[in-house]
Amino acid sequence: MDKIFFKTAAELSDLLDKGEISSVELTKSVINRTKSVDDTIGAFLAYDEKKTLAEAEASDKRRREGNKLSDLDGIPVGIKDLIAEKGQQLTCGSKILENFVSPYDATVIERLKDAGCVLWGRLNMDEFAMGSSNENSAYKPVYNPWNIQCVPGGSSGGSAAAVAAGETILALGSDTGGSIRQPSSFCGICGLKPSYGAVSRYGLVAFASSLDQIGPMGRSVKDLALLLQVIAGADAKDSSSFPIDKVNYVAELDKRGTRKNIGVPVEYFQDGLDPEVKQAVQDAIKFYRENGHNIVEMSLPMNKYAMAVYYIIATAEASSNLARFDGVRYGRRSPNATNAIDMYFKSREEGFGEEVKRRIMLGTYVLSSENFDSYYRRAQKVRTLIRNDFMRVFESVDAIITPVSPTVAFERGKKNFDPLEMYLCDIYTISVNLAGICGISVPCGFSSKKLPIGMQILGKPFRENEILSLAHEFEQAHDYSSQHPDI
Ligand code: GLN
Fold first, then answer.
1. For a substitution probing ligand 1, which of 82, 94, 126 has the most ligand atoms within 8 Å of its CB?
2. Positions of the chain with pLDDT under 70
3. Which of 487, 478, 129, 166 is nearest to 321 (CA)?
4. Which of 6, 51, 63, 179 is deepest in the core (most CB within 10 A)?
């Protein structure tokens, strides 16, 4: 069979059911593909071929015996290297966790195992998920499979590039301010940030705990639904996970018939938006209008504060969360220290990269007693206003369409010397995390230089089914998701 590694999980699941391929064949195809392209792409930080093939063999055995565990039984899923898988490295793209091996499974990993998925490799990322270009990985950068002069986006750039290049079928990423959606859009794949609390964070190394969510990445909207089906749902080990009713995301994809009210926020189409991205998203909006949906122009005036609020709250939480990496309990301990205090300082000095240190310092500053009220407390209040803005709009619309990022993938080295420029990549995605709602990125076009463009569809909390269904409707009528890079 030709290029099995470029098929969707849904197609492969059918082929596995019919016995036309085996999981071992599929997994080998993905492994060989990785070996042939990953020197160029850099999506993987590590993989364990033997372990992965053993999982594929076990899946084939189950299918032979009629004991398939789920529709994803036997399908390879790559894991961003900040989600704990027992016995595998867990570096978070940082030198401070070099050689750290996870002693336990994250809840999402347990669920993937229970569904029979084949866990394939540890995917590259910006250090501790801080970044938008994957140039902050302490190990190596990731290159965009559509044009290796360009970045893949970040921080789940390894996950996005691996899916786009056929090095895995599905992947898990994490999204604190856009880290699933922005790289998905840069690499021409689909990615979903679930509502806060929809997916357990147990075993996800925390960056900003009130914003972080794990989510699915894949080559079609249906693939996201299949993967979300497996990982979503409350978890006793994560008190912030929410007991939502079990939804059949896959069955809901084709539930149409109702005309939806779709909001288009004026603020998201103003200065700084690349004209080609604007055009592609506007064409997508036109598609929905022509297909009977009601398009409503609306406003999210608080969005202009999202960037400032995010860089106070996210850095504050990061400075607390990252305090645990002290050279005593986890990871790297400096060999150059002369006493205990020196050991804390040197382990952190040598172990963390520049961007991580910048965030820790910012976060410590906004939490300090003299600055707490004017920064942190005020940011929390504005966060509520941002959420209220969305909730007000969601009283009259079912979903909101925006661009994912102001530009397509940019050239390597272009923004990593200017943190503010880099932060602006997430101008359309971060408010979604601050509000705790769900958002999907789905391919909606290509630039004149053949770089993918993504649109973002936002939904009410725990209405992933609605945005998946709208994205699916668009995808069925276009062929953007089914195109692959020439690598
Ligand atoms: N790019 C944003 C940041 O650097 C978002 C990161 C994320 O979602 N993990 O913080």
1. 126
2. 256-257
3. 129
4. 179
- Specify the pTM: 0.97
* Distinct helix (H) and strand (E) counts, the chain: 16, 11
Pairing outcome for strands 118-123 and 44-46: antiparallel
CB under 6 Å to ligand 1: residues? 129-132, 155, 175-179, 207, 314, 426
Ligand 1 pocket test, pick from 132, 209, 322 with the greatest ligand atom count within 8 Å of Cβ, gives 132
Residues assigned a catalytic role: 80, 155, 179
- For ligand 1, atom 5, the nearest C-alpha belongs to 177
Ligand 1 center from residue 233 Cα (angstroms): 24
Question: Given the CA of residue 211, which atom of ligand 1 is nearest to it?
Answer: 8
- Bond before 220 cis per omega within 30 degrees: no
- Omega prior to 210 cis, within 30 of 0: no
- 143 close to 402: Cβ distance less than 8 angstroms: no
Residue pLDDT, tens place only, 96-127: 999 999 999 999 999 999 999 999 999 999 99
Tell me, what amino acid is at 127?
Answer: E
Query: Which two structure tokens, joined as six digits, stand for 450?
Result: 């053949």
